[in-house]
What we know:
4 helices
Amino acid sequence: METVLLDQTKVFVYASAAGIALGLLYDIFSFFPDVFGQKVLRPVFDILYCVAFMSVFIFLLQTAAGGIIRWYLPGGMILGLCLYFFGFSDYVRLVLSGLERAALAVKRFLVKIIKKISVFFDHPWGC
Length: 127
């Protein structure tokens, strides 16, 4: 009886950790369409997230739970997602928004440099 309970607890903890990791993946996947464009990238990243979620679920189901869906596998994943979204998501989104501002600053700097280089080559004394 003790080994069964230990195995169930282990699967629950694995599922919770997978839920936390999938929450992080969700924030990262939602970051790219917000920065680079909504129309094309949003459905692509939504589909990628669904594939990743199902892959993790099936992997846990086959390796840790022995192929049997018990309440503690989806329950652990849901608990992990809730822990992530109520505990860590705000901080990750803050870091990602800082990265977005940094990327936009680098983009503006590179556009400025390219404009100066193109002006140099547009002059008759340039090459």
